[in-house]
């Protein structure tokens, strides 16, 4: 690193003096600039920075005194030594008063001159270092003050008596106190009364290092006591020999004098609220505010322990709402949620102090009675629960009727574990549901047999999907005027290994309840696509496959991807597929369903509405969705001949279809009178026993080979089997 050279300005009106000084100083490594008058000296000082100036006091014009005055006025960092032939005391005193470091009389000793120059430069360097240190301290102080007052935490210092001697500005924002109002006051004045004893360990901390208080939670009072108590993490740390003087070392020995406590108080009120919310969510149902399964389990353990101590008994009721699924599917999930909240509010009115009413999912509730005397007491509570739902429930825009079925188990008679009692109460509830809509039943051992059949159906369905036990029959659809087949509806059957051929109404409802309908639907879709692909291989390229998709299937996130992948795997174009859904499926989530249906339509897939006119009451979806077919439900066809209002409804449906340019098909046509009336009302495409019962694929293939079809035949797959 290059050494910095000291620059010196030499001013004297005697050339010999200039030459002498320059020669001496250059030999000792200084950089010298010489001038012989004061005017030139001041001009140089305006243009150039010098570390030192050697001045003669008496010169023509501007003398040394005026040059020093100029250096002072310009606030130059230049040391001055006067080298003058004036030997009077007044001259030396005047020069020193004006700021000269030294006054050297001519003639001078070289050693004296060099020593004075060296000392003056050292003093100048020390002053500069000192100034830099002070500037850093001032900057550090400003930064520290900014950091302290900008801290999100309260920073405080207490004296040895526990009185505030310092507080940053945050105390006003967080607690509402002015700093001046708290200075000199004891810390206990802002502590929550219940936490005074705890506060002594944090606010009066004397320890240092790792043993000091850390993250100690305590409550402090805001100035406005109505605003409640905030939670703070208080960190009280005493620092040895700190700049804040918390401890002071004594003159003798190693003892220290305790001066006070330094601390930081961090507001954690929001965190405490979040912790309370998380704790609440962990043990409560967020929709109804009732305890959930976890809190029910805790209360059950307490109830069992209490019953064992008193040799008593406890009861557990499993409550299921009847018709809730209909309400949810028809009126939508939002109305269903409102209904659950209203039911929970009514049930609360029947709950005794100490009872636990919990919602464990869907429309299922559990009531725990920790202390019961006899069955009459339990029956009284169950009857009150059921009675609460006899009157209609008025929601925002709907009047809804539901009822409850209740299954009851007893501790210790029916078991001593919550899971065991709930399972048996669930069985009893299904027994109550089977006997009457809206009643209660106590568990009986004979009910286990019914459960075994229920579980057998569940496991059998899973095997049926895995082992390909399903078959498909086809019911032709005819043009009633020409007698030609224009399509066929596929109906699923279960070839049960023990019970034989089962119709869909014996297993589809269970599949929907358990969620197995998704796997069943996938099986039917894959089977139908493979069948259609086989027909296309023998020249029936115009067959269109229409799949009736249940609501749980359509709610699957990957439903569209799976269906399109099935088409691609069987090498079928999108135009060969038609998706059939019910109006109630639309009501569950019209926005989500419409997105999926539009995506299918964009890939050439047609859309059909099954059971049209029996579900979702709004017709606004007709112009929002890419619909191709409307199917008239068999419930209208059954009463067609004797009900003029039904004929008006069907006429309206055919007019809607004509206006929209879509097909219309009537289901369940069983006699010629129904056929003729439907023709009069504008419906030409029909299916039912009048035309044909469901047939297997070989018989349908036979019918098509004999030329019994015209137009564009289609294949309809009904996952519900209706």
Explain what you see:
- The chain has 722 residues and is of the alpha/beta class.
- The protein has four domains: 7-130, Response regulator (Rossmann fold, 3-Layer(aba) Sandwich), CATH 3.40.50; 151-274, Beta-Lactamase; 284-445, Reverse transcriptase/Diguanylate cyclase domain (Alpha-Beta Plaits, 2-Layer Sandwich); 458-718, Alpha-Beta Barrel (TIM Barrel), CATH 3.20.20.
- It contains 25 helices and 29 strands.
- The strands form six sheets. It has a nine-stranded mixed β-barrel, surrounded by five helices.
- Strand 1, helix 1 and strand 2 (31-35) form a beta-alpha-beta unit.
- The chain starts with 6 loop residues before the first strand and ends with a strand.
Task: Offer a quick outline of the entry.
This protein is α/β, with parallel strands linked by helices.
CATH-derived architecture of the largest domain = Alpha-Beta Barrel
Number of strands: 29
Work out the helicity level.
Answer: 40-55%
Largest β-sheet summary: 9 strands, mixed, barrel
Content of β-strand: 15-25%
In terms of structural class, how would the helical and strand content be classed? alpha/beta
What's the domain count? 4
Characteristic key phrases:
Beta-Lactamase, five-stranded parallel beta sheet, elongated, Rossmann fold, Alpha-Beta Plaits, 43% helix, 4 domains, alpha/beta, 722 residues
What are the SSEs and their pairings?
Layout: E1 7-11, H1 15-27, E2 31-35, H2 38-47, E3 52-55, H3 64-73, E4 79-84, H4 89-97, E5 102-105, H5 110-150, E6 154-159, E7 164-167, H6 170-175, H7 179-182, H8 196-203, E8 216-221, E9 229-237, E10 247-249, E11 256-258, E12 260-267, H9 269-283, H10 293-310, E13 313-322, H11 324-331, H12 333-348, E14 356-361, E15 364-372, H13 375-387, E16 393-394, E17 399-400, E18 403-411, H14 418-435, E19 440-442, H15 447-466, E20 470-479, E21 485-496, E22 500-502, H16 508-514, H17 517-537, E23 544-548, H18 551-554, H19 559-569, E24 577-582, H20 583-588, H21 590-602, E25 606-612, E26 629-632, H22 634-638, H23 644-660, E27 663-666, H24 672-680, E28 685-686, H25 697-705, E29 714-718
Parallel strand pairs: 1-2, 1-3, 3-4, 4-5, 18-19, 21-29, 23-24, 23-29, 24-25, 25-26, 26-27, 27-28
Antiparallel strand pairs: 6-7, 6-12, 8-9, 9-12, 10-11, 13-15, 13-18, 14-15, 16-17, 20-21, 20-28, 21-22
Helix pairs in contact: 2-3, 11-12, 14-15
């Amino acid at each position: 690193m290059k050494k910095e050279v000291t620059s010196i300005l030499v001013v004297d009106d005697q050339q010999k003096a200039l030459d002498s000084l320059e020669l001496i100083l250059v030999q000792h490594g200084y950089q010298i600039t010489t001038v012989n008058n004061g005017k030139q000296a001041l001009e140089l000082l305006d243009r150039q920075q010098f570390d030192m100036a050697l001045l003669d006091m008496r010169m023509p014009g501007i003398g040394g005194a005026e040059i020093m005055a100029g250096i002072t006025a310009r606030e130059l960092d230049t040391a001055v030594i006067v080298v003058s032939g004036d030997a009077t005391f007044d001259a030396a005193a005047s020069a020193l008063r004006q700021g000269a470091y030294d006054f050297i009389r001519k003639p001078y000793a070289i050693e004296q001159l060099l020593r004075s120059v060296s000392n003056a430069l050292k003093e100048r360097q020390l002053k500069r270092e000192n100034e830099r240190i002070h500037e850093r301290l001032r900057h550090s102080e400003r930064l520290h003050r900014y950091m302290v007052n900008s801290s999100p935490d309260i920073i405080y210092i207490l004296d040895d008596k526990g009185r505030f001697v310092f507080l940053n500005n945050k105390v006003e924002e967080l607690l509402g106190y002015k700093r001046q109002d708290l200075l000199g006051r004891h810390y206990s004045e802002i502590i929550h009364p219940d936490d005074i004893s705890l506060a002594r360990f944090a606010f009066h901390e004397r320890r240092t290092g790792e043993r000091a208080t850390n993250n100690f939670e305590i409550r402090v009072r805001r100035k406005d006591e109505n605003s409640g108590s905030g939670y703070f993490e208080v960190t009280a740390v005493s620092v040895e020999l700190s700049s804040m003087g918390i401890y002071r070392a004594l003159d003798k020995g190693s003892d220290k004098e305790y001066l006070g406590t330094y601390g930081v108080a961090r507001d954690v009120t929001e965190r405490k609220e979040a912790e309370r919310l998380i704790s609440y969510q962990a043990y409560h149902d967020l929709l109804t505010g009732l305890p959930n399964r976890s809190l029910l389990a805790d209360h059950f353990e307490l109830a069992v322990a209490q019953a064992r101590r008193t040799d008593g008994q406890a009861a557990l009721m499993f409550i299921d709402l009847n018709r809730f699924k209909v309400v949810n599917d028809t009126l939508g999930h939002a109305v269903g949620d409102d209904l659950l909240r209203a039911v929970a509010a009514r049930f609360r009115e029947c709950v005794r102090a100490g009872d636990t009413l919990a919602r464990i999912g869907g429309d299922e509730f559990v009531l725990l009675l920790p202390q019961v005397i006899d069955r009459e007491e339990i029956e009284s509570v169950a009857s009150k629960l059921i009675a609460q739902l006899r009157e209609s429930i008025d929601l925002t825009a709907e009047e809804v009727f539901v009822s409850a079925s209740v299954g009851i188990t007893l501790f210790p008679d029916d078991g001593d574990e919550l899971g065991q009692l709930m399972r048996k109460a669930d069985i009893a509830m299904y027994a109550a549901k089977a006997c009457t809509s809206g009643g209660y039943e106590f568990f009986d051992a004979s009910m286990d047999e019914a459960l075994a059949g229920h579980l057998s159906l569940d496991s059998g369905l899973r095997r049926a999907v895995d082992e390909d036990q399903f078959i498909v029959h086809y019911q032709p659809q005819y043009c009633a005027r020409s007698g030609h087949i224009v399509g066929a509806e596929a109906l699923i059957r279960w070839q049960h290994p023990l019970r034989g051929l089962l119709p869909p109404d014996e297993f589809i409802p269970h599949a929907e309840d358990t969620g197995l309908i998704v796997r069943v639907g996938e099986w039917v879709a894959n089977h139908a696509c493979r069948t259609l692909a086989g027909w296309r291989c023998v020249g029936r390229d115009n067959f269109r496959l229409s799949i009736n998709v249940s609501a749980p299937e359509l709610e699957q996130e990957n439903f569209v991807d799976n269906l399109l992948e099935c088409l691609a795997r069987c090498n079928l174009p999108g135009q060969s597929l038609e998706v059939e859904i019910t109006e109630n499926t639309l009501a569950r989530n019209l926005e989500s369903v419409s997105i999926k249906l539009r995506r299918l339509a964009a890939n050439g897939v047609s859309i059909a509405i099954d059971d049209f006119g029996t579900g979702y009451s709004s017709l606004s979806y007709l112009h929002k969705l890419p619909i191709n077919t409307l199917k008239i439900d068999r419930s209208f066809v059954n009463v067609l001949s004797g009900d003029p209002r039904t004929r008006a409804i069907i006429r309206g449906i055919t007019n809607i279809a004509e206006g929209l340019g879509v097909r219309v098909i009537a289901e369940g046509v069983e006699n010629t009178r129904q056929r003729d009336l439907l023709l009069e009302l504008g419906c030409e495409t029909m299916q039912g026993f009048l035309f044909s019962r469901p047939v297997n694929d070989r018989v349908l293939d036979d019918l098509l080979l004999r030329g019994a079809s015209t137009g564009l035949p289609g294949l309809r797959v009904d996952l519900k089997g209706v």
